[in-house]
Amino acid sequence: MPTTDALATDTPLAELAATRERLRAAWQARKPDYAQRRADLIRLREVFRDRRADMDAAIRADFGHRSSHENLLSEAMITLAELDHALSHLRRWMRPRRAAVGWRFWPARAEIRPEPVGVVGILSPWNYPVNLALVPLISAIAAGNHVYLKPSEHTPHTAQFLRELLAQVFPADRVAVAIGGPEVGAAFSALPLDHLLFTGSTAVGRKVMAAAAPNLTPVTLELGGKAPALICADYPIEQAAARIASGKWFNAGQTCIGVDYVLVDAARRDQLVAALLKQLKQRYGDLVAPQDYTRIINASQYARLASYLDDARSRGLQVIEPFADTGSREQRQSERIFPPALVIEPDADAQVMQHEIFGPILPIVSYKTLDEAIARINALDRPLALYPFGHDSASVEKILAQTLSGGVTVNDTLLHFGAHDLPFGGIGPSGIGAIHGRSGFDAFSKLLPVFYQRSKAGSDLLKPPYRGMIDTMIRWLAK
After folding, report:
1. Tens digits of per-residue pLDDT, 50-72?
2. Max CA separation in the chain (angstroms)
3. Is residue 199 within 8 Å of residue 124, measured between CB atoms?
4. How many other CB atoms are there within 10 angstroms of residue 78's CB atom?
5. pLDDT per residue over 330-387, tens digit each?
6. Which stretches of 47-182 are assigned E, i.e. beta strand?
7. Secondary structure (3-state) at 134
8. Catalytic residue among 222, 232, 356, 397
């Protein structure tokens, strides 16, 4: 891995437009066909697989520490599975799709042709810096586009890894990588791209959309929100706690679809708290120099999370910190180890309920009826993910019917993200559009409608003067 001193400097702003022009001109000169797309994906898979150790080292350097097992699961496995899925289905995805024209236009026929759009821009985030850069890139390449990637400035080692990896796979006029901070990101968003994907916070997503608007650049926004887990009264608490713990404390909660808060029937709230504390002890021991617990990405994020707990305490809320006596506060802060914490029954105006937490703090909220729990969910913005836990199909169906979210995993957490035939995306403040699998291929394609007219039938038959047989025919067609 390169040292910090060897990391690439910011891409000059003047170079951004020139690079976009180079990518677009190369695409226009030779749009990738099936053979080229497949060869690119195979080459990317081979090189990426061989450089998993470099990937792991880069991510751990950026986070201070993140478990190699979490890197393999969340970054390598997801990316390789997306590549395998695209390679298995690419030929079918590229075929024209038959479309009906209706009896009024018989004997004409129609089809929908997936056509590449040109240069796809990708603004990827820091929390899963490889997966969330390469998975949309795979879709864009499969769809026949060229790609301009701008990784997060908060993971500079990983950004450098991505630049080196992609340069090893693609020519410079097919895939390029821009390096830099917010100024580069803002200029990147304003480029006249053919499609722009942003993954990150809702606040920054608004700015990206505004920057893209003057060029009428189509945007896909993968944002976030307060993803709830709702435990129905019939579901076993111990099993729910184990699965919620995985969905909350994987990557120390720095997951856009991670569990943000839990709704549990009031009679079993304390039982859930005890079960979650048991899970934390089993998973992380005493949290001294933890090898399987991810650090917070930077000091700013650490301070934000600390302010949420300070706010909860100032309101007199019960804050449970099972690892409060582990190490000194200064030591934890210097190493960016933010221990898991539970906040019990926070008010709606508490900071932990006003903002996406994006960290290892878990609010626990009790409810008396399922209708009350559903109303609590609907009182907030539509989330990116929802996790109902229940064995009664009628209760689960009620939750699904009366809420709306970006995606759902029933009786578990996170796993719908890895199912490549499921579209992944939010709604409203949690996102616009969807990616993964065929949905990603379609997102970065123009689904071109083509109508084929027959030689002996056409619009030239229905023309003025509208009398006699023409009058009769039009009135018949308009019934």
Report:
1. 999 999 999 999 999 999 999 99
2. 94
3. yes
4. 21
5. 888 899 999 999 999 999 999 999 999 999 999 999 999 999 999 999 999 999 999 9
6. 97-99, 109-116, 119-123, 146-150, 175-177
7. helix
8. 222
CB 198 within 8 A of CB 222: yes
Q: Cis (ω within 30 of 0) for the bond into 465?
A: yes
Token pair, residue 66, equals 């993140």
CA-derived radius of gyration, the chain: 25
Contacts (Cβ under 8 Å, ≥6 apart) of 412: 243, 247, 387
Compute the distance between CA of residue 130 and CA of residue 223 in angstroms, rounded to an integer.
Answer: 17
Among 75, 82, 232, 256, the active-site one is: 256
User: What does DSSP say about strands 97-99 and 109-116: parallel, antiparallel, or unpaired?
Assistant: antiparallel
The answer to whether residue 232 is catalytic is no
- What's the pTM? 0.94
Using pLDDT thresholds of 50, 70 and 90, give the confidence band for residue 6. Answer: low
pLDDT mean over 294-315? 97
Distinct helix (H) and strand (E) counts, the chain: 18, 15
Q: What is the DSSP string of 254-303?
A: --TTS--EEEEEGGGHHHHHHHHHHHHHHHHTT-SS-SSSPPPS-HHHHH
Check if 222 is active-site: yes
Please report the domains of the chain, with CATH numbers, ordered by start residue. 4-223+430-449 (3.40.605.10), 228-418 (3.40.309.10)
| 139, 445 contact by CB (below 8 A) | no
